[in-house]
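User: Hi! I have a protein structure encoded as tokens and I'd like to know what sequence might fold into it. I'm fairly new to this, so please keep things simple.
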């Protein structure tokens, strides 16, 4: 196949006779490849063996596909990005590929029992928990924190809620009226469990007024009980 590409202002991505894999100018891949080197090596070895067997019997499907269309492709006088695929039977050809599998997932599973044990040593508190929408990782982590707090005896002011229409900061933000127990213990324990990152404590003496100004639902903290509002935003490591 002959590609004649002229006078293109932008990026050009060309794929010819592609039977698998990814052809792309930009490939945002966040999976942990190093953790699966042995698996990938085994897969490559298996594919190589299959190709060898086919070649022994003079079977070459890729050659037939390549011979199927020998007409030249002419690309010229184009302003912008160009992505071309010819005789592709598998894989991905794209200008930009975003692969989100394998994202780092926050979890407190290993430290759950210890965190609950430490929180039970302090006075119980009231809390309201919000999390960003449309992200399974955030949803799972918020549910995990919510379960830890309820098992620690904390009072849930209202059911866990999605903060729709609002961009929450990355990580866990614990908003308190003043730095006192048991919120200090909560912040310390979650911060330690997440590897000393992704947790922030904010002191806002007038939480209810802040919520009113921003148009958020009222806090309604119980009288005589320490309270906090917790926001779960995107994972800062992703």
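Assistant: Happy to help. Inverse folding works backwards from shape to sequence: for each of the 238 positions I chose a residue that suits the local structure. Here it is:
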């Amino acid at each position: 196949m002959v590609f004649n590409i002229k006078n293109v202002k932008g990026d050009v991505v060309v794929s010819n006779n592609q039977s698998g894999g990814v052809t792309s100018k930009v490939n945002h891949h966040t999976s942990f490849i190093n953790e699966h080197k042995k698996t990938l090596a085994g897969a490559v070895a298996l594919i190589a063996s299959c190709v060898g067997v086919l070649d022994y019997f003079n079977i070459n499907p890729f050659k037939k596909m390549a011979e199927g269309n020998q007409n030249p492709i002419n690309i010229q006088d184009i302003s912008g990005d160009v992505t071309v695929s010819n005789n592709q039977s598998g894989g991905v050809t794209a200008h930009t590929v975003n692969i989100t599998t394998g994202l780092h997932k926050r979890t407190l599973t290993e430290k759950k029992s210890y965190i609950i044990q430490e929180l039970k040593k302090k006075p119980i508190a009231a809390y309201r928990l919000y999390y960003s929408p449309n992200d399974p990782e955030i949803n799972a982590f918020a549910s995990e924190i919510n379960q830890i707090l309820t098992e620690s005896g904390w009072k849930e002011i209202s059911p866990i809620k999605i903060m729709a229409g609002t961009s929450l900061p990355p990580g866990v933000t614990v908003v308190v009226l003043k730095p006192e127990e048991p919120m200090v213990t909560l912040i310390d324990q979650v911060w330690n469990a997440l590897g000393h990152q992704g947790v922030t404590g904010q002191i806002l003496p007038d939480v209810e007024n802040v919520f009113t100004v921003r148009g958020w639902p009222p806090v309604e903290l119980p009288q005589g009980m320490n309270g906090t509002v917790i926001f779960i935003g995107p994972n800062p490591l992703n």
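A useful reference point when you look it over: Residues 27-33, 97-101 have pLDDT under 50 and may be disordered. Feel free to ask if any position seems puzzling.
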